Amino acid sequence: MFAHNKKLQYSVHVEECNPGLANLMLEQFGGPQGELAAAMRYFTQALAEEDPGRKDMLLDIATEELSHLEVIGSIVAMLNRGAKGELAEAVAAEADLYRAMQGAGNDSHVTQLLYGGGPALINSGGMLWTAGYIDSIGDPTCDLRSNIAAEARAKIIYERLINVTADAGVKDALGFLMTREISHQQSFEKALYAIEPNFPPGKLPGNPEFANVYVNTSQGDGDMRGPWNSDDNFRYVSDREAQLAMDGGDGKPSVKLGKQQQECLSAFAGRTASETDSNPTTGAELGKQDY
Amino acid sequence: MFAHNKKLQYSVHVEECNPGLANLMLEQFGGPQGELAAAMRYFTQALAEEDPGRKDMLLDIATEELSHLEVIGSIVAMLNRGAKGELAEAVAAEADLYRAMQGAGNDSHVTQLLYGGGPALINSGGMLWTAGYIDSIGDPTCDLRSNIAAEARAKIIYERLINVTADAGVKDALGFLMTREISHQQSFEKALYAIEPNFPPGKLPGNPEFANVYVNTSQGDGDMRGPWNSDDNFRYVSDREAQLAMDGGDGKPSVKLGKQQQECLSAFAGRTASETDSNPTTGAELGKQDY
Amino acid sequence: MFAHNKKLQYSVHVEECNPGLANLMLEQFGGPQGELAAAMRYFTQALAEEDPGRKDMLLDIATEELSHLEVIGSIVAMLNRGAKGELAEAVAAEADLYRAMQGAGNDSHVTQLLYGGGPALINSGGMLWTAGYIDSIGDPTCDLRSNIAAEARAKIIYERLINVTADAGVKDALGFLMTREISHQQSFEKALYAIEPNFPPGKLPGNPEFANVYVNTSQGDGDMRGPWNSDDNFRYVSDREAQLAMDGGDGKPSVKLGKQQQECLSAFAGRTASETDSNPTTGAELGKQDY
Amino acid sequence: MFAHNKKLQYSVHVEECNPGLANLMLEQFGGPQGELAAAMRYFTQALAEEDPGRKDMLLDIATEELSHLEVIGSIVAMLNRGAKGELAEAVAAEADLYRAMQGAGNDSHVTQLLYGGGPALINSGGMLWTAGYIDSIGDPTCDLRSNIAAEARAKIIYERLINVTADAGVKDALGFLMTREISHQQSFEKALYAIEPNFPPGKLPGNPEFANVYVNTSQGDGDMRGPWNSDDNFRYVSDREAQLAMDGGDGKPSVKLGKQQQECLSAFAGRTASETDSNPTTGAELGKQDY
Amino acid sequence: MFAHNKKLQYSVHVEECNPGLANLMLEQFGGPQGELAAAMRYFTQALAEEDPGRKDMLLDIATEELSHLEVIGSIVAMLNRGAKGELAEAVAAEADLYRAMQGAGNDSHVTQLLYGGGPALINSGGMLWTAGYIDSIGDPTCDLRSNIAAEARAKIIYERLINVTADAGVKDALGFLMTREISHQQSFEKALYAIEPNFPPGKLPGNPEFANVYVNTSQGDGDMRGPWNSDDNFRYVSDREAQLAMDGGDGKPSVKLGKQQQECLSAFAGRTASETDSNPTTGAELGKQDY
Amino acid sequence: MFAHNKKLQYSVHVEECNPGLANLMLEQFGGPQGELAAAMRYFTQALAEEDPGRKDMLLDIATEELSHLEVIGSIVAMLNRGAKGELAEAVAAEADLYRAMQGAGNDSHVTQLLYGGGPALINSGGMLWTAGYIDSIGDPTCDLRSNIAAEARAKIIYERLINVTADAGVKDALGFLMTREISHQQSFEKALYAIEPNFPPGKLPGNPEFANVYVNTSQGDGDMRGPWNSDDNFRYVSDREAQLAMDGGDGKPSVKLGKQQQECLSAFAGRTASETDSNPTTGAELGKQDY
């Protein structure tokens, strides 16, 4: 069960209102690499986790990510706080309020008009948060790899936000949040490598014939070799013919059909056949422009 | 530029029509861990990649994933092929066609009714594919980690599909596709570790004060230690007070407001204040049920 | 900041595994009326709330809803727990595992195949959770009304789930969750009516000419009167002509155009005009079937 | 059945073209609080309504909301009308047309490039309208509460649009639309309170032990009391221990597993266990940066 | 402005309740080819239409499609009507109600649990309606072609629904709705061909060098010729080299960079380069399984 | 199977970096009328196509569209290339980097912050690509019509992009891409008209009573006649009464209910009835403002 304390995990002291900057911060509130995605990723994994140590870790980090959601959301709320009152009370002229929500350095009209300055679960482009951002599948060696990648991505988005933020208070809090992602990544790495073996994931081995093969499908100027396709590590298949039907078969799809299935399919194919030896007049030709 | 050969990368010989099984296969066609997501993930990364070796690798694997999309899509098409003709030609009784799209072991009504038996970019639950499934952010050390995780996940979904598939032809092709994910994961791993250093991602170092801290936010029965939060690796913070306002500040959010901003905010707060010392009659009380 | 205790707010003791029932429970986990929507609705409101009493209440209830998300998610995890291991270890025949995820009384293939039995942020139909489910707009008299309605809806979905659940342990926990919605609705009601006045919302009065008018747009057999359109409460406008252009104007849309705008528009309209006095041969006529 | 008259319900006379303002207006066309959401909300409720009076009311108001969709859509069309022709005919230099769709006070590039100046079912941030905005659940006491809240929200969005609109013609029409929401809210209120009792919704009573309990989950500085958690109205639970496992049980989730289920689960847990007493070298350590 | 009469455009007399069939009908209510998509497609086009004849036609057909939405929605409501009351009143045993919403021939749990038997704007797979289904772009020769295609598609979905419906009353109403699509297609065809010329759409001619070229990108067994790529109609390019860089250039992407841009890019590329001549130990190798 | 050559189908030589222009180009990368939608539309159709000639054509054009996706994606990557490095290396002041992603003529913050300058599958408004953009239904006469319309739409979006692009290199490549849509449209037209008959689509004839009827639902000033509703082509129904219940029935919806169904429905209707002859005090009245 969760409990809450009204103190934030990190103090947020914003220098001045700036709805345009607030909008950018939404990337880490309601964006794909943001804190809600992180919290829900770990929380939902925790609920089904069979390993008690990982379950505890996932709950620890999920709870901290919720607390980060609160920190970044508080930044958004503070940056919007001045504009919020001005729009609600409408003390300024229409044209001034209009300019205050769209103009140079400011793409905050969705936040202001639709959400009244509150932090909404959208990214900076107004895209609604979707659970499609969460890629957990219920296998620990996969989910831990997904978590490692997610922490790495979140670290970079914070770095970019820091790079565009001149407000010292916001920058300081962003630095904390960015750093915590580094720490979380290290925990997930430890948990992954504490599973042995962890590669390949799952129980089924691959087919050894195809498990260390590199198919050079993109050729021409720019073709390169490296450890990801070196002869040390892989069988390198460049021959175009050898890339086709690698099972040695005909490379075709087929299915056995029952008699009624075959008859129906023939009837369907027959009545919708495009004649190859015709040259029918088309709608486009009826309406064609003479240049 | 792409070219195409009508031979598949792997032959697909399906034993018999089975729209219910076809529907499950959609997970790897239009599902979040499926081949379109894989192909587009690597293809879009390739277009902006500055490293020529990685660019080539990403194009190689993207092109192969498109070819896998063709293989899994051909499986779907073959499994649906018999039912497609029967519905289009309507030779059977309505009740029979009705049962053929929903019934025990068969949740194929969306595929049949809406898509006419064609492979659609949905998952097995009918959820439309969305680019929210792709998590690329344009940083190589992050994107490679995301790719590693994505290959691991795809491997497992194929394993699960294999576990529920009795059709030998389908099972064989799924085995090939699953194995290729293992191979791709290895290539991405090599490419990641060929970047040195690769951790933490990005250019900004974290704040050392918080980079190796583990916050034990979830406590009570079940609290555990492991390498992910051990004293060897982390400073472990369990004290509830020490978890709050880790900057040592007041833990509050604040922002400096201009005079008009402050006045508007006060007006707004004033006219929307909820009186704490009232006990107003509510709508619910007006309509309350007497148990 | 959040803290967590590994004890649930309510014990969950499930009688037996049932992935089909688990799937239904997802309505209150990742569905539109579920606990994530509730928690995020109140949490995001709290962050921007100016009234300290309401802010505290919103945080209290948001935190409890997160704890309910944990309870319902634990129900889902327990109901799926048996099937999860069987699929991962693949000890049964393919056909048995196939039937175990789709068949009479069981629409759990998305949960099992894609999410490995973990609780995912989808509803029972596999629709991904979206922040479009949250309707907060940053005005207290609106948001409290939205919260009241949301609690009422959640109560009913729990009631429906209870009606279809024979498992006594699940039923008991659902009863607790349902009851808490009743309690929360009462809190939100008190907070709304503690704002005086609270109707109409906002600062701008309506135009008195149209504020108490009922437009009887749907006529014919079945036209009825009640307090929602009675003469006591409204001016009732049934005359079709009087419903049009209620401003007394021409009922047309117009805009003043600049000279270049007008010229371009004329050029555009001219080159795309559909001649009214022609009877052109169409594409459909080219391809028309003779019945 | 619907009929249509080409006169609008309210005349729309726009002073001058302004694609930037047009874009803001989309909030009430294709946005979550807009007229399509309103119309579809009431229309779909009406179709399944058993109460003849409410059915008539819902059809009346749905039909009027469709007419409002036409009014707001006509405002959008008029504001875009000049720019539409200029882009289609391309009489201006590329740079001028470029600036005319994005620049200070103008975020109209989606409308212009993709929709050719036509009113599209998106909000001002380009988010596509989704039926996730509609929260009807087929229970009258819930749906009426949802409708009341929806009308309140729509009123406020109109108020905000009015506050940023200097065009007198647009402002006048917005004032009408805003006022009608006030009137509709009153009708829905009458219909709700004409159901007795209407609280709690549904047929099942709550568990009296938990129906009037307030759980003070958020504590620390800022904890407050008011009618929403007063001792007059609620049993106030602040003790952290008393908040856990409120059923008096162990606060744990459990499920009875069959023998094969238990064996599979053990096998799965065993092969994916993270060793707690290890300190494995991780991928991050392989690639770690030396600061 | 719209008006409404409580008589439907076509009577709906359903023989018996069938929530499973109701669910299928949702394809034409809230599905991509359904009546809401049709109505909104034409209605939004009408609002921005400059041609008075087409504007009138679009409003006529949009209004009729809304009336069809009412017909198909009434079919859904009637088919669900019996189950709705039984779930709400819970007179049957839990297991019976459970089976009544999922089981052979019945995938109605979303409709029943979440929507209480009301027609919801989802398709038969539970996917929420999205405005992404509407493809209008504000050019008449395009939009009319889109409308023609949309009517054709809707006709086929109705045909498929008819093929699986044994209920005579439902079948009769579906036949009417299907027929009206045929009629509408003919109107849109007439309106398109009444624009002369109408091909190619728009004002800019294509580059004559590439306007009648067919690029044979897919080769191998199965390569075919027909009027769509015949020498009569097209220049047929099969030579792989001739398909590349058809402008005769180098086929590469390039951009001129400023000095600082170039320096930053080099720094970025340098610190994230993957060494090609290394063979680093990877994370996967750390955790590799020995088969 | 697919193969790839690192040469583009058309060379892309961009004059200078311009993230604002890059953002607009996304309409044809990840927008509804863009190249991914085109490629996937034809590719998925091809997989289930029974006609060998059309199957080959669909694969040819799908493969070319993938190659166009590469061209437009390369344009995006080049236009963003300078800004990408500057943000990653953070050599400029925060305020400069802030202005470089939002400001006059530049709405690129999503691309830069979230995607690091890589081409993402979003449109210019940040809306994630969704498979809802694809309207294939598995019937050739429908799908070919959909393809014709899609090519027409894509042509126009390219035309609009050309109209706002001053960069000669970008303009040249856009001209190529636009022209290819013209060519593709012609191929699809030939393939459609090579099916005889092709109208109406499908196997079921319409009901002759309603197949050539035009219902004049929108009346009043602006009512017009043209070939789309002329007496030559249609029976024109203007009489309002004749538009209702065109089957000659009662225009009502009904369903036969079983005894228990009827009883439950009565109980449900009874306990949720809104009394018509009451005038209850409402929540709004409790909180009403005195103007």
From TrEMBL, chains A, B, C, D, E, F:
Cofactor note: Binds 1 Ca(2+) ion per subunit. Binds 2 manganese ions per subunit.
Region (Disordered): 268-291
Cofactor(s) annotated in UniProt: Ca(2+); Mn(2+)
Organism domain of life: Bacteria
Coiled coil stretches, renumbered: none
Chain positions recorded as Ca(2+) binding sites: D56, D60, N216, S218, G220
Residues reported in the UniProt entry to bind Mn(2+): E35, E65, H68, E151, H184
CDD domains reported for this sequence: Mn_catalase
Compositionally biased spans, kind Polar residues: 273-282
Entries under InterPro entries matching the protein: Ferritin-like, Ferritin-like_SF, Mn_catalase, Mn_catalase_dom
GO terms of molecular function: metal ion binding
Leader peptide range in chain numbering: none
Keywords: Calcium, Manganese, Metal-binding
Pfam families recorded: Mn_catalase (PF05067)
Family label: Belongs to the manganese catalase family.
Official protein name in the record: Mn-containing catalase
